[in-house]
Amino acid sequence: MNPERPFASSVPSGSDAVIPVSALNRAIGTMLERSFPLVWVSGEVSNFTRAASGHWYFSIKDAQAQMRCVMFRGRAQYAEFTPREGDRIEVRALVTMYEPRGELQLNVEALRRTGQGRLYEAFLKLKAQLEAEGLFAAERKRTLPAHPRAIGIVTSLQAAALRDVLTTLARRAPHIPVIVYPAPVQGMGAGARLAAMVETVNQRREVDVLIVCRGGGSIEDLWAFNEEVLARAIAASDVPVVSGVGHETDFTIADFAADVRAPTPTGAAELVSPQRVLLLRELDHRHATLARGFGRMMERRAQQLDWLARRLVSPAERLARQRTHLQQLSVRLASAGARPVRDARARFALLRMRWQRWRPDVAVHRSAVSRLDERLRGAFVRRYERDAAHVAALAARLEVLSPQRTFERGYAALLDAQSGRALRAPTALKPGRRLTVHLAEGSADIALADVQPRLTDGF
Question: Which of 85-89, 115-119, 228-232, 265-269 has the lowest mean pLDDT?
Answer without folding.
Answer: 115-119
